[in-house]
TrEMBL record:
EC number(s) given by UniProt: 3.4.23.36
PANTHER family, A to Z: LIPOPROTEIN SIGNAL PEPTIDASE
Name assigned to this protein: Lipoprotein signal peptidase
Membrane spanning residue stretches: 59-76, 85-103, 123-146
GO biological process: proteolysis
Organism this protein belongs to: Oceanobacillus jordanicus
């Protein structure tokens, strides 16, 4: 089970390192084009959740994140021991949640920097922790579907 906590620590480490690089080397609002009209690094800050919702509600985010982190750890210990896919997904969620929590706790805002324009839509700017959260949720969906398919085959 420890390997999954190590995965979470790796996510947190990469997330915090990349955010530090952005804060240290870019001015707020500065944009570095990587692929013209598609991908750039843009130094941005967010005091809310995804798409800036609930902006400035730090106490709310502290409480919710602590509840979520505790829930993920409990769920990991109880239900993910025999399911590698679920354990990896939960470790990504844990790392992502803690990565953004660290920002909120120490910076009072989350550092975002990945900026994509996809088919003309300027996607909200995000970071490594956000990516880990999205991939973790996607992996949970896949793990759940796979588990249900296995259960369905066992009934025939």
């Amino acid at each position: 089970m420890y390997i999954y906590y190590i995965i979470s620590l790796i996510v947190i480490g990469i997330d915090q390192f990349t955010k530090w690089l952005v804060v240290k080397n870019m001015d707020y609002g500065e944009e570095i084009t990587i692929i013209d009209q598609f991908f750039s690094l843009t130094s941005h800050r967010n005091t809310g959740a995804a798409w800036g919702i609930l902006e400035g509600q730090m106490i709310f985010f502290y409480i919710i994140t602590l509840v979520v982190v505790i829930g993920i750890i409990v769920y990991m210990q109880r239900y993910a021991k025999g399911n590698r896919g679920l354990a990896i997904a939960l470790s990504l969620l844990l790392g992502g949640a803690i990565g953004n929590f660290i920002d909120r706790l120490f910076r009072k805002e989350v550092v975002d920097f990945f900026d994509f324009v996809i088919f003309g839509y300027d996607f909200p700017i995000f970071n490594i922790a956000d990516s880990a959260l999205v991939v973790g949720v996607f992996c949970i969906i896949i793990a759940t579907i796979m588990d249900e398919l296995k259960k369905g085959k066992g009934k025939k």
